[in-house]
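Reference record
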Amino acid sequence: MSLASRLSANFEPSVRGRGQNYYWGGQVRIRRGSPTELTARVDGERTYNVELGYEDGWLDVYCECPYFEGEGLCKHLWAAILAADDYGHLRAASSAKQLRIGDSEAGAAAESEFQLQPPGPRLAPPKPAPPPEWKKRLAELGLDRHGPRRDRAIWPAGRQIVYVVDALSSQSSGNPVISLWARSPKQAGGWGVPTELKLTRSQVEHLPDPLDRDILTRLDSVKHYS
């Protein structure tokens, strides 16, 4: 469990929000960090020194801003805690079974003011939502929103295209009518039963045989194959 997760309930939501903006805005500069300590400078209305140190179950925190002196846990401390988690500092504190937090100079009163959440098991990240149906269809066609997916094989090794001329339809229409079929080699030798073939333009462009690409490109221009 991260230190921020354990401390989250002890900071006001508005304080966490402003501290997070400070961290995301690059306003935290770590001066020294280790599994037991962190010192940093946080740029706000002016630059404030922040210190966190862990020893024997005690997390001692300090910020020189007026809010910390008067109200307690401040946005500068929260920004520093986020930095500690991201850079792997203060791990001894985040993993401690029992942990007290406060300003050691303020004594026991400060300790009782801040109560930590106990460490808990790491929760598995939620499973991503399934892609929408239109994205599945594009993937099946070898496309994405940027065009053909050139990094995916779309033609099995050894597969051949069979061009079948429909003589009767060609005679009645006065033009050649061609249907496309495909056959694949058997492991024991010979060819499997041909199956009807449907190809998109992007698949035609990425066929391994240049002769097939040329034939199908020409046929596509006259629209007499299926």
